[in-house]
Amino acid sequence: MDGTLGLGGHGKAILKAIGSAGKYYGFDLDIDNLTEAKKRLKEFSAQTNFFHDNFVHCHDRLHEEGIDQVDAILLDLGLSSPHIDDPSRGFSLQEDGPLDMRFDRQSNTLTAAQIVNTWPESDLKKIIYEYGEERYAPKIARLIVEQRKEKPFTVTSELVDLVGTIMKSSTDKRKVATRVFQALRIAVNQELEVLEKVIPPLLSLLKSGGRLVIISYHSLEDRLVKRAFKKVARACICPPQVLQCECSGKTSFQILTKKPIVPFDSEIQENPRSRSAKLRAIKKI
Fold it and tell me: Which of 9, 190, 242, 278 is deepest in the core (most CB within 10 A)?
């Protein structure tokens, strides 16, 4: 099961690896990505099932297909290249575009523009600080509220320019704006809530010997995955005050990556967007 199908790059490699007897189930929120991936994986049509849905619903959707367990699950979190390359999606700082940032433009009605133009200053400060890990969050939130009184924010450049009034250098401006955009994107798509909610049902889908692999692109996601894996891999579930184990617990999972796997320098040169990727894997015993 591939919970983040994208354009089918991982899917093609997986399908070649599992052979003609294998089955592949791909999920994606973005109908444009899904349509393109189907074209790219057309040669494997007899082995593929596609779902225009959030991977948080994978357990129920697979159950509808008569699938209760799978051998392997992949989540490649974050943005796909079309999201960054298409200005109309509003994800990128490179070119001006509408403040959208939705993965699913069909069913999700919340946009980044709605957040910056309607949310209270306290909520803006909270998401920019927590989701963007940005120390200038209070000042940025205050400026957003002040500026939107004069004119609502409609395009990405307006938000970038606002950050520019705070930061002196263009490098700092870009870094801070990137973190603000990250915070808005996470809030629009409820990315962290979905990720935290989905890991237990994903683990329950695995057969014995099956593996869950998650690739994250920022520290918030990586910490969440790390904590979730450590929690299920613990044998003892006694409370901290118990000095000697009384539960006789046995873990059903083995963490395969004590430290996250990161790309080689050569990989980053070939694909610069992979530079922040961290891969963690866990196996069902």
Answer: 278
Whether 2 maps to a domain, the answer reads: no
Burial 110-143 (b: 16+ CB within 10 A, else e): ebbbebbbebeeeebbbbbbebbebebbeebbeb
103/228 same-domain check: no
Is residue 193 predicted with pLDDT exceeding 80?
Answer: yes
pLDDT higher than threshold 70 for residue 247: no
C-beta separation of 166 from 143 below 8 A: yes
pLDDT at 152 over 90: yes
Same domain, yes or no: 196 and 174: no
Distances 150 to 123, 145, 153, 181 between C-alpha atoms, Å: 20, 9, 10, 22
* Confidence check: pLDDT of 253 > 70: yes
Q: Which domain holds residue 151?
A: 99-189
Residues 124, 168, single domain; the answer is yes
More confident residue, 84 or 146: 146
Does the pTM surpass 0.90? The reply is no
Contact 239, 264 (CB under 8 A): no
Residue 137 lies in a domain: yes
